[in-house]
Amino acid sequence: MPPSDLGAPLERNRLLAALPGAGYAALARRLEAVRLQPKQVLFARGGPIDYVYFPRGAVASILVDASKDRLVEGGSVGNEGVVGLAASLDAGPAGEVAICRIPGEAARMEARAFRAACKRSARLREVLQRYTLALMGQMARTAGCNRVHPIEERLARWLLMTHDRVGADQFHMTQEFIAAMLGVRRPSVTVAAGILQQAGLIDYRRGHLHILDRARLEEAACEDYRRTEGLYEELFRSLDGIGQSE
């Protein structure tokens, strides 16, 4: 197989790694490695999307309106995705807020260059279209989960999704931030985290969270976790199935 047909096996962002070698190389020339910081605003509602971000270790949250002055997490993006999808459509100002939830590495690209790359590459457009369906599914399941499931099940789901995207058993996360993301009061998170901790599933002290028993945490989570992750498993199976050619 000629080198131009090889993908990017060392690329830590799975969407970028799904591109053929030539397509990835063309995009990589415009990518800039950055480190995202906790609560860093990637774009604000009503403002421009200047960059798109491909997390390589960082995790971002997409925030949506829950009330007049309250934002909650509608979706999360880690190394399986991209932040700033609307930039590919030249859709104007951002409709949501995106912030960094877990600090770490990412690649960013100017939105204008990203739009141009989308116009040139049919493979990139297809990858993004399939990813969009998975992200929309995640956001729909999150909305339903926030509506009907007990807080301890929601917290377990949220921690598992964070664990998947961070790729480490330990990370820093305050109760205030978790409460804001889940759209609940801090005492509710304290109680829910206490239940999970007493069961031996996590250890949580002074904002430092350690997942102790992944298998049992999955059992404690609502079915939305498994269904959401199933969307991404199907996404990458489908990307593997459509080949590596433009």
CATH topology of the largest domain: Jelly Rolls
Order of helices and strands: HHEEEEEEEHHHEHHEEHH
- Provide the structure class: alpha+beta
Strand content: 15-25%
CATH top level assignment of the largest domain? Mainly Beta
Distance between the termini: 15 Å
CATH architectural label of the largest domain: Sandwich
Number of helices: 9
Task: Please state the overall shape, judged from the principal axes of the Cα atoms.
Answer: globular
Q: How does the major sheet shape up?
A: 4 strands, antiparallel
Number of strands: 10
Please, what is the average pLDDT? 89
Uncertain spans: 1-7
Name of the CATH homologous superfamily of the largest domain: Jelly Rolls
In helices, the fraction of residues equals: 40-55%
Radius of gyration equals 18 Å
**How many domains in all?**
2
Strands of the biggest beta sheet: in what spatial order? 2-6-4-5
Describe the structure.
This protein is of the alpha+beta class and 246 residues long. The chain has two domains: 3-121, Jelly Rolls; 150-221, Arc Repressor Mutant, subunit A (Orthogonal Bundle), CATH 1.10.10.10. It has helices at 14-17, 21-28, 111-120, 122-148, 151-166, 175-182, 186-198, 214-220, 223-241; strands spanning 32-36, 41-43, 51-55, 59-67, 70-77, 97-102, 104-110, 170-172, 202-205, 208-211. α5 packs across α7. The relative contact order is 0.15.
